[in-house]
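User
Take a look at the entry that follows and flag anything odd:
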Amino acid sequence: MICPFCNKEMIKGKVCSNDALWWAEAGIKTRLNDEGGIIGRLNGDRVSAYRCDKCKKIIIDEK
């Protein structure tokens, strides 16, 4: 993926949490976890993302 801020190649990885990872907006919470099943929930949340080493920005792929 190309960074929309600096046009450099981004690094694919995952944003990880030992607990739940949420997006909250107007009182509605959406859990961010692309690791499926009960094992995914027991191990904490992980969501695919791209990181720009130059800009230090992270873009998360929501399901």
About this structure: The CA atoms of residues 16 and 46 lie 4 Å apart. The chain has a mean pLDDT of 90. Residues 37-42 form the longest helix (6 residues). The radius of gyration is 13 Å.
